[in-house]
Amino acid sequence: MNRMIRSRPGGGSSLLTEGGPVPLICTGSPVHATFTPAGTGRPAPSSEMESPNALLAAIDAFLIAPYRWPANPYLGWWLGTGLLALWSAVLGEVTGMIAVRANRRTIRDAFSEASDRHDQSLSALQDGDRDLYKDINSLANEAYGKAFFLQITVAAAVLWPVPLAIAWLQLRFAGLRMELPVSIPWLGNQISALFLYMVLYILARILLSRSRSLRQNHFGEKGGGKGRMRKEER
């Protein structure tokens, strides 16, 4: 049975079923929340959150809080998911920067070695020494492989909050869908929390990337101006 959150005048939410909207009452602990149809005293089918692992249990109260700030569940859905996407992007940005700083020299050396080996292998091939070419080319491939896996490590440092957030969303909102005021082609007028999270996460990543570029350009211009002033003083 598909379930969907729909805001109602005066606050609260409703569980949309085949028989029509049924008001929802949230009961239970933050980790094991149960949405109970009002007046029935029985939990909605499949709405009880499964027992998460220790990490999800530890962060659940923090992640679910923004969803409960607005009285309107529709606004809470957008606010909570938006902040979750922003936190994921910012946390990934921070850990990615740490990974880049920690492996910058190693990555640079690996690519430099791969480039040098490639040039050496081409020189050996031009000289007609195919055995030497194969040996050096093998070393070049090893260097490229090392650099490639180092880049994967950096990418993992950036993206690791995403699967964690997805796991939490699945435990919290699996099967729940939000009703939109308009119909979107190929999607209709209902979206899941996971879909909304991915859209907002991509937007957050774009904003962070542009913000980083602006900061780099700004400080680069300031640094260039100071350099020109020193040259003029000399």
Please give a quick description of this structure.
The chain is of the alpha+beta class. It has helices spanning 54-68, 73-126, 130-159, 161-173, 193-233, and strands at residues 3-7, 13-17, 20-27, 34-37, 176-184, 188-192. The protein has one domain (3-220).
Number of DSSP helices?
A: 5
* Distance between the ends: 77 Å
Q: Which value, in Å, is the CA radius of gyration?
A: 26 Å
The domain tally reads: 1
As residue ranges, the low-confidence spans are: 6-52
Main sheet: strand order: 4-3-2-1-5-6
Order of helices and strands: EEEEHHHHEEH
Overall pLDDT score: 74
Report the β-strand fraction as a percent range: 15-25%
Which class do the helix and strand fractions yield?
alpha+beta
Total number of strands: 6
Helix content: 55-70%
Shape: elongated
The largest pleated sheet is described as:
6 strands, mixed
